[in-house]
């Protein structure tokens, strides 16, 4: 379906009860009915493993790779690896950083401020081993934030930058980062670009061929709408021939020939296969992730952005008189629409406000000094109005 064809509310495809206003997909996506059914079917199918074939250990993950590659405009699905978490994917980057061409003591790893811990803790050991430093570009004070934050990040990428770690949209604030410009700048100075797409890919368009990152890492249980403890990572040519975290037997050439597994194989399957987590088959969860990706390919991230923009636009106008602020819409450097940080009045306690909202069945997240509002296609104008009404009570 064309990305220009508008989407209407898709709540009928979810098991969300009436009276519950779930604006919290950035914490965890609810399962659609198709994902739920895929899980039930897999449980039934694998209650009896009789007739299981060697290829059954590989077919499910191959289908998921293909669909994820299609979602992000990646021509080669063999560059997709199955991982359990973002921390696992970032650990692969850290493991291979010592082998990066031109790496030298005194360089830095560049992060955006207030980044998710998995994108921060990953570098402690390799920084100490290689004599690197961490440089952080903090969120600017005042509004608008996005354009200035992007400018400051680009200015910080120099020939002393070994690695840039940046998201398409900030996990707390929803601030967008122009990854096409950041990727181009990183390539100019010889730095790697590692993208944590967890809080964007699936709801915000991402084009691998335009961004050209070295790594894209996504947890599967948020905007990819799949099960917990599954993720996907894409590795560019810089990681061909790299060092995996573990030596899983399934990652070796001809590993589907079970009758020859004792003929130990020194060669890996091509490209990103070496980075797959062990037991990557996930007989129960893989069909659920497959169903989620199938649905996203039909919905399309651009149409999800358009729906959430139209749904929430009246909310932001109604919150201004309450002393709340959201960042400006400014193309690829403004705020996203599926994840929006709402800055509360200085006197307000975000945790106390979130508690009032919870008591009124409005689910959001409090992160630092902001409320994180994360709508999706299952949300309705009633959900948006419930948020406004609850905030009026909480902030009066």
Automatic annotation (TrEMBL):
Domain Aminotransferase class V per the UniProt entry, residue ranges: 60-366
Gene Ontology MF terms: lyase activity
Keywords from the named record: Lyase, Pyridoxal phosphate
Keyword Lyase: yes
Official protein name in the record: Selenocysteine lyase/cysteine desulfurase
Origin species: Spirosoma oryzae
Origin organism lineage: Bacteria, Pseudomonadati, Bacteroidota, Cytophagia, Cytophagales
């Amino acid at each position: 379906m064309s990305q220009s064809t508008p989407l209407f509310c898709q709540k009928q495809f979810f098991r969300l009860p009436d009276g519950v206003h779930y604006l919290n997909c950035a914490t965890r996506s609810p399962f659609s009915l198709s994902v739920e059914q895929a899980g039930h079917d897999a449980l039934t199918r694998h209650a009896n493993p009789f007739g299981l074939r060697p290829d059954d250990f590989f077919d499910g993950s191959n289908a998921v790779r293909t669909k994820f590659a299609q979602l992000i405009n990646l021509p080669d699905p063999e560059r997709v690896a199955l991982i359990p978490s973002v921390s696992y994917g970032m650990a692969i980057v850290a493991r291979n950083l010592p082998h990066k061409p031109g790496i030298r003591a005194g360089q830095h790893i560049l992060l955006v401020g207030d980044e998710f811990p998995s994108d921060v803790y990953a570098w402690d050991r390799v920084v100490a081993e290689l004599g690197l430093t961490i440089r952080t570009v903090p969120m600017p004070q005042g509004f608008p934030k996005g354009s200035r934050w992007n400018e400051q990040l680009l200015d910080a990428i120099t020939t002393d930058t070994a690695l840039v770690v940046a998201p398409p949209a900030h996990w707390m604030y929803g601030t967008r980062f122009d990854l096409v410009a950041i990727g181009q700048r990183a390539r100019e100075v010889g730095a790697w670009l590692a993208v944590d797409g967890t809080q964007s890919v699936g709801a915000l368009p991402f084009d691998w061929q335009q961004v050209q990152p070295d790594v894209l890492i996504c947890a599967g249980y948020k905007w990819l709408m799949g099960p917990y403890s599954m993720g996907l990572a894409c590795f560019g040519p810089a990681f061909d021939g790299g060092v995996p975290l573990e030596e899983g037997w399934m990652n070796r050439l001809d590993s589907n020939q079970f009758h020859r597994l004792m003929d130990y194989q020194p060669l890996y399957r091509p490209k990103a296969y070496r980075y797959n987590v062990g037991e990557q088959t996930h007989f129960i969860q893989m069909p659920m992730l497959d169903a989620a990706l199938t649905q996203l390919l039909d919905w399309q991230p651009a149409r999800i952005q358009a729906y959430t923009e139209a749904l929430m636009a009246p909310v932001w106008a109604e919150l201004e008189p309450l002393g709340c602020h959201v960042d400006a819409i400014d193309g690829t450097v403004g705020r996203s629409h599926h994840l929006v940080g709402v800055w509360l009045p200085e006197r307000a306690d975000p945790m106390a406000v979130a508690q009032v909202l919870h008591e009124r069945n409005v689910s959001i997240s409090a992160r630092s000094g902001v409320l994180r509002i994360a709508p999706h296609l299952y949300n309705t104008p009633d959900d948006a109005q419930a948020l406004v009404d609850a905030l009026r009570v909480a902030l009066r």
